[in-house]
Please model this.
Amino acid sequence: MEDTVLVVNCGSSSLKLALFDGQHRKQASALAERLGQNDAFARVEGQEEIIPLDPGASHDQALNTLVKVFRDQGLMASTPTAIGHRVVHGGETFREAVLLDDDVMDAIEDCAGLAPLHNPVNLSGIRATLAQFPEVPQTAVFDTAFHQTLPKKAFLYALPEAWYREWGIRRYGFHGTSHAFMAAEAARLLGKTPATTSVISAHLGNGCSITAIRDGISVDTSMGLTPLEGLVMGTRSGDVDPGLFDFLRSKGVAADEVHRVLNHESGLLGLSGQTNDMRSLCELADHGHEPSQTAIDVFCFRLARYVGAMMASLSNLDALVLTGGIGENSARIRAETINHLKLMGFELSPDLNNHHGEFSDGRIESPDSRFPVLVIPTNEELVIAREASRIAGSAAPG
Model:
């Protein structure tokens, strides 16, 4: 039987499947969206046909439907030999990917209070997949695990120590699989080993985070106890004054409403009043829509400021690395961000910035730049597939 690896990624209202062969080459992927809503649907990557789902379809229903589609279309000819799951929050319990069992699932559930929008649906996908493939070794790969190397000075808040000791209130960081991939890819492109490579990695999509990676390990990052802290994001505010809660309470706004707005109606969407899609914002700004230009300005300035902050955790810098949907595709955002960093010696080549996809090494800096700047497409699914194969292999008898 040919080795195959299935990667399962459950979002709050979505489920993505990706199938890899034994050499970790992607063979197929599919995405179910708007789960829990009346207009839930799915689509196989590369196919235009919409796959209808039952109104209010759950994650397990979507999983069963997409697995059947994979089989019916001959995309999944046999039972996978390993399955990997993205899990958002592993707290301080998990420093690396682990083989799933009842104890691990209980620990993931214990972390649900730290990621209430993510861990419960991650568990839903895990349970559905275990029911579908009970004999296949399955692995949990945690967004937070890569950041468990943060030193105390980087992960502790200036709060009563008992809050950390008793409740685990600290900075955890997220997007760990993406940042780990960036560190390894940057080292490869620079002709170095990961253990001798120090980079600042910026993952810029609907969710955004930035990480200082020193000699291959995470030493500082922008997201905190939850994925809300740090950079401006698509609908998330990033950093705000905690006193905002008291101020808004005086205006009659309840804490749960503030939390909802900070997560779902802020960021680029809140600033522009129009959209959280950066491509659309750039088009609106080009047509004179001032709030959209303001959203872009705030996004780029906050990102540049965090680049400077991350340098405090490094003794040297081999490259600034940009990834994610915005980082990979928006030359404008890259240029406007780097323009804030001239004092630090960063400088882009306009030609390379506008045509980076035509060059295999991803470098977009000018010859006069003090530091390299790289654009590298992230591949979190590949990281999860590799980890699932590795752990399934170590768990195999004999």
Summary: The mean pLDDT is 94. The chain is about 40% helix and 15% strand. The first helix runs from residue 59 to 72. The two ends are 18 Å apart (CA to CA).
